Every structure is written in C-alpha cells, then in structure tokens.
Give the backbone structure.
Amino acid sequence: MTSTRPHSLADWLTYIEQQHPATIDMGLERVRAVATAMGLGQPAPHTIVVGGTNGKGSTVAFIEAIARAAGWKVGAYTSPHLLRYNERVRIDGEDASDAALIAAFNVIEDARGSTTLTYFEYGTLAALHLFAQAGLDLAVLEVGLGGRLDAVNIVDADVAVITTVDIDHADWLGEDREAIGVEKAGIIRGWKPVILGETDPPSSVLARAYLLGANAIRGGSDFFADTIDGQHWSWRDVGFRIELPMPALRGPIQLRNAASAIAALRALDKPLPRAAIVEGVAQARIRGRLQAFERDGVEVLVDVGHNPQAARELAAALKAATTTGRTVAVFAALQDKDAVGVVEALAERVDGWHLAGLEGARAQSATALLARLAGTAAAAAATHDDVDTALQQALSAAQAGDRVLVFGSFHTAAQALLWLENAR
C-alpha cells in the first residue's frame, strides 16, 4: 500500500538504498523486467548513450547544450550528483522536482513486485519514466559503471559515445584497458554509430564495433579538433568544418569532449544548425570540472577527478594555465581508488599537498590516505579531518598569485563547493 511508503524525497532515497543487499549488482535481468512491467520503451525519438572512464559528464553537458540551442527538448540523465539528487535528471535544462521523482519512484514500486533493485537502478528507471512522459526530442543517458551490464544499457541508443577507456573500478571491470574496453563496448549497437573520443581506443572496443557492423567514428581519425588560437578552435570531418569559441569548461580535455559531442549529434538522423553548435559549445556548463573561484587573489580550482587518467588531464590543464605562484593540492579520495597513481600523475605540477578525510561508504581518513602515499610526492602532506578544514588551511597559507586545486572524488568536490559558495 502506498500509505506505508516514504513521503519526502530524502526518505525515498534512504528507502531505495536499503532495497537491495548489494550497492552494486551488475546485470540487466532485474532492471529490464521492471522496465517491461512499467511499460517503458524508448525514452525519446532520439537517444544518445555516453560511456567511458572519464569525460562522460562533460560530454553530456556539451550534447545537451548544443541540442537545446538547436531548439530541441532534451532530457539528460547523469550520475553521481554533487549537491542534490535532483541534478541527476534534467528536462529542458531544469533539474527534476522532488514531486516528479517521488511520483516516479511510486510507479517503480507499483511495478517491481518482489524484484529487488539497486539505488542506481531505481534512479535509472525513474529517469526513463520521466523522460517518456516529457515529450522529448532527445534523451542523453550517462552510463554509471562500465556499460555492458549497466542499467542504462537496457536502452538501445541511436548513437553510443565512448569517451575514454582507462583503469578504474578494476574490481568490477578488469585490470587492463582491453578488459575494461569489453565492458565499455557493451553499449554499442549493431549498425548504429559509435563515437570514440580516443585516437587509439582498445582493440576490444574496435573489435566489438566491427563484429556488430557498427560505424566506428574515431576522434583524430574521422573527426578532428584543431586549435586555431587561444580563443578559437575548429571541428572538422571529411565534409564539414566549423570554427568555434573555446569552451567555457576549462582544460585541454574539454576540446576532445566537445568534439565527441558534436560528432554524436551529427551522427543522428536530425538536422543540426551550425549556429547551435557555436552557441552550445560556448554555453555548456557543468559543476566540479575545473570550476574556478577566487579568494583574495588565490585561484581555487575544484574538480571531481578521481583516477590516474583524470589526474593526467588535470596536470595538462595546470601546465596549460601557468601561474606565477605555488600550486597546492587538497586531495581526498575513496579507499578503492589508485591514490598513488593519482599523486604520481600530478607530482610535477603540485608544490604542496593537503590530505583530507571523507565519511561514508568506501571513505577513508586522511591518516589512512597518507599511509598509502608513502614514498610519493605527498608523503609529507598535512592531514585534516575533512575537506573544509583542509581547504581553509591551504587558503590561509596561500599568497596572492597562488592556486589551490581541490580534487579526488565527487564527495571532495561537493564539500569544497558547499564551503566556497557559503563561506562568504
């Protein structure tokens, strides 16, 4: 009976966390059965699914912004969220309301019977339900973990995007790029385009595309992002070229993400005005991706990067935007991440380290993190109970012209954003 169910969104989120014995239970049988019981079909006339190790959220943001600039009604599903669960489901640029999410969760409860669902599976079904009701032109769905067995993969996308493939979630996806590529390539569909953001993707990804007859469209081979000057770049393929402003999203990697987004939209069977590409690239925003703040002449950069590949991109971004002062890192990571690999990737670009503790599942204290970093550039780092304290200490010791990079997880970025946005 619905009277015994949660009423507020916060209560619902607590409830759905408790409905499956495992936080992660990869496989499509349960979620597909509930989707069928809910009567879910395709969430929109056109659907793009975005997978990969890093860059998924930014690529979704570019796709969404360009498509909305073209006048399309767009639904975007991303995870995890930074500050509010509602961020995960956007329709026409607006986060889903508490009431809409609660209504969707009730529909799922009515349909699932005795089938158990994970937290992510509830969220995916809720998003698909809300999108189906919204009269969208385009749905953009971000894969949560892997691809082949991720709940998002119950949807047959018109275009798949695989941004990058690198080592992360090794316990679930495999120990090397080829094994992980098999999982990422699970979102590819037969005779449909797949956009590959990397110039040299794993052979396992290409093999899957060729086996299915999918049209593999490769960055650096079939489409290109060329820097013109500090303010402009161009996107081109065999029959099309367009000059664009540099994205508002910072870092060299964002050109590749924007280029993949353009390629994905051009692969749809739907006209895309040139002006929409220009406007969308300039307007795309996403929080926690080298998001910049200024505090008394000190630049603070907040980023969700949490694995060595993301750290290498952060290092490239720091190198490209040189500073006259010191660069200090505030780093807090979950215990199942390759913290050593992250620090090694940034060692040449960071002059000092502060480590912070996190709370919750998979979290670790700053002391535990320090012990793991023995022998690295962060071996003598200061330790702090939480991100707020670490950030305050880093800023108090900084001088005008310095910069502080806060990164290591979505949890780290969320705590930093809350403090930065509310401290003054």
Q: What stands out?
A: The longest helix spans residues 98-112.
